[in-house]
Fold each of these.
Amino acid sequence: MKTMWAPWRMDYILADKKDECVFCDALSKNEDLTLFKGNDTMVMMNKFPYINGHLLAAPVRHLSALEQLGKHEMGELLATVERSVDILKRVMRPDGFNIGLNLGKVAGAGVEEHLHFHIVPRWFGDTNALTVFAEVRVIPEHLKTTYDNLKPHFDNLTI
Ligand SMILES: [Zn+2]
């Protein structure tokens, strides 16, 4: 198994963790990295991405377990993941994706109280150390640029 090495994640590990939920916070404010706010689901950029284009898709309701999702919400959430993948494919042309849920701290959940899917685009050779080094310095710029590239597509999104 290859480990994706992302040194800029140290900013997250060392940052003060606030009490409020980042997802609920993004829904209530004009959060600048939120791509989509629907009736039941939302999509935002991961501020501390493993790789450029790392998105998070979550239900609007603040809940932590899959069994708390209604059937309708479950369907909307999966549809949101599918549409997000479609947009990333068109805009960023990745070679593949890692998509998944981290349930519980032991599984690596940073925000375990609000369920969310990680959508991580992958490119051949993206574990290359030089690429990672090069991105350390420019990742904040990448975030905003990527956001600006993706936002118009999410503005047209209907779930
Ligand atoms: Zn929440």
Amino acid sequence: MIDVVSPIISRPEAEKSLEEMMSLINTYGGGKVIKIIQRRAHPHPGTYIGSGKTEEVAEMVKNLKIDIIILNAIADSTQLYKLLQMFWTYNPNIEVWDRIDLILHIFDKHARTAEAKQQISLARMRHMGPRMYGLSEQLGRQAGGIGGRGVGETNVELMKRHWRDEMKKTKDKLDNLSKTHENQIKRRREIGFKTVLIVGYTNAGKTTLFNALTGKKKLAENVLFATLDSYVGKLYLQNIRKEVLISDTIGFIQNLPTSLITAFKSTLMESIHAEILLHVIDASDPDMYKKIKTVENILEELGREPEKTIYVFNKTENIHEEFKKELYKEYSLNHPLFISAKTGQGIMELKNYLSQLF
Ligand SMILES: Nc1nc2c(ncn2[C@@H]2O[C@H](COP(=O)(O)OP(=O)(O)OP(=O)(O)O)[C@@H](O)[C@H]2O)c(=O)[nH]1
Ligand SMILES: [Mg+2]
């Protein structure tokens, strides 16, 4: 795994970014990881990492039998393609990924519903497409060099057409699924169901809270992106004798590329329509403030109005009373609540508050 960091970034900050990348790699399935940090003011325009570093890494690919190289960055497809080309000689099966590739591979492993699966393959095609073009164009040029120009060119055209057809097919399937999904939401609305939606940074405890509120037993795990599909459950609010719908969603993450947000828009669409949003925050996380900001930015990008968003500070059995008071003051506009989804502390208050709102 290679991280290119600016020389002005402090060491602790660089390490944090590396740590999140390590959690992502662990979520994907771990394996032996070699970490390489390069300090550079700007990524190399051709190969993202500098040429000296590229040679160093090529040596490693040769000597250490490396399977995958992951850049902790969002690189453009020509950069990824050039790197791939350089390492090929030493390992013809080598893969070069950037952050989007890694997240897509994780999504692929975790997706359960047909809709999520289609969304992921579409996002993947969009991201991989240009690289495939690069590859086929090169094959084309090589063929041209040997003699006939026809063969290569035809291959490029064929490949592009195939790619376009596949994208179209996937998009059509997805449109159908999204329509069904939208109709479901509409029907629930017509029946008069109100919806509460749980959002938040990945690993904040959203699924644990969902389970605590609905009595369901969805998988909660100490990994990033344990949940990829929205799950809907029912929550009975005793005080007002009313049932509301509550859904659990995919976690957000820093640098979630816009293309992936768009890919998940329909799954996340409910977040735009839901009456109330519960923004779950891991209050025991030293990076909490940055993560709150990240989630807010993504919600804004999705077009969600900030009113009616309740901040639910979770894992509070691990924080001091003083800190709670501070948070209460700081976030008074966001109706802060303090819970522990794990021990059940504060869940009653949360239900009471929801009853009031409905
Ligand atoms: N200490 C403590 N741990 C908690 C609490 N709530 C959840 N956790 C733990 O935090 C980890 C993540 O919980 P999840 O419920 O899977 O988190 P999530 O937000 O659904 O995560 P993703 O679906 O991956 O985005 C698990 O190991 C939970 O056991 C809590 O109140 N206190
Ligand atoms: Mg979850």
